[in-house]
Amino acid sequence: MEISDLITPSRVIPALKVTSKKQALQELSRTCSTFTGLDERVIFEVLVERERLGTTGVGGGVAIPHGKPAGLQRLYGLFARLQQPVDYDSIDEQPVDLIFLLLAPETAGADHLKALARVSRKLRDVETCEKLRGSESADALYALLSESTTISAA
Description:
CATH superfamily: Mannitol-specific EII, Chain A
Helix content: 40-55%
Number of domains: 1
CATH topology: Mannitol-specific EII, Chain A
Strand content: 15-25%
Largest sheet: 6 strands, mixed
Order of helices and strands: EHHEEEEEHHH
Radius of gyration: 14 Å
Distance between the termini: 25 Å
Number of strands: 6
CATH class: Alpha Beta
Structural class: alpha/beta
Number of helices: 5
């Protein structure tokens, strides 16, 4: 599973203007509803319920909110670079400015975990995150996110 299987350039928000974690999740839920066909409230409630289990702010200014709303038939992703970092209750207590939202069908156990692992690996890379923070367009952000993460020996 590649990140390009989860997002398209139209599912990349280059400058999301929000002032809180809740507002970020609301805006991302609203956007996801347009391409998943699910009600934005259903998506938001699934994300909030997941946050109650523990923060999805993984550190380094990155959050990977995720959930399994009823009615999905496939995995969906949405990436947003925030105009200003927001407090996200992250594990390192640092504000978040890069968010990759992942939605999966209720039955997608292994695929959901593989997608989370792929996104996490990509966004744990400090150099990738610096490039994402320096990119202005959705196409440039998409290109960075969809680059292969294979490592070759020097």
